[in-house]
Amino acid sequence: MVGSERVLAVLRDQWALLLLLVVGVGVFAATVAASAEVYENVQESDDLAGLDQPVLDAVVDLRTTALDQLVTGYTHLGGVVWAPIATGLLITGLALRWRSWTPVALMVVATAGSLAMTSVGKVVVARERPPTDLAVPPFETSAAFPSGHALNAVVIAGILAYLLILRSRSVRVGVLVVVLAVAHAVLMGLSRVYLGHHWLTDVIVAWSLGAAWLAVVITAHQLVLRRIAHRSRRREVARGAS
Fold it and tell me: Mind listing the pLDDT tens digit for each residue in 24-75?
């Protein structure tokens, strides 16, 4: 009886943390399951993977010189040169403005996980990129699955959006930030398909893996914040009682 009462007391005291954990685990599980399904399709060359070639053929017909240059310029924003520079400047600016190391710590953890998933995925799957005669130069030679540009775009844009939402009290600002983050991640992924640098399924699995990793990082951070706030309230109550 005492044990059950203690469990109920913990549940009442920590219900917000438990709800957050359930939601975070749910999002993670759903996105990982989606990634696994896409991976299976790629390995067996069926279902969703059957769209890869038709989609590539369709975007080839859409290409023009001007559009090729525009999309190439945009995709370079997610490359190994400009993405770290732009992200570093933005995060440093937020850290200095808010006088907090939280933006830096979250971004380092998030991008480290993103890069690890990209590297492992490319080695494990070792999928070839689309043929160069269907791609727009400059060509890339690393493995195709998953798309590092798309995965990193989800993670970086997601963390930036999360940090800005934490500091903003405006619903409009929050909605705008989310819309911009999603738009950037979607456009970055589609740019890779348009240029013939990745198959559609490379991008889809990158989006789902990025969302899964975001769920882990954001959930962990929220759990830490709520735990700190809970301890602070308990100390205040204890001081008041004394």
Answer: 667 767 777 766 667 676 766 666 777 888 999 999 999 999 999 999 999 9
Long-range CB pairs of 218-222 (<8 Å, 24+ gap) are 218/24, 218/158, 218/162, 219/20, 219/21, 219/23, 219/24, 219/25, 219/27, 219/28, 220/24, 221/106, 222/20, 222/24
Amino acid at 162: Y
pLDDT digits (tens, 9 = 90+) for 212-232: 899 889 988 888 887 776 666
Of the CA atoms within 13 Å of residue 223, those in its CB half-sphere come to 15
Residue 174 CA to its chain's centroid (Å): 17
- For residues 181 and 157, the answer to whether their CB atoms sit within 8 Å is yes
- Domains contained in the chain, CATH given: 21-233 (1.20.144)
Angle 114-120-124 (CA atoms, 0-180°, nearest 5)?
145
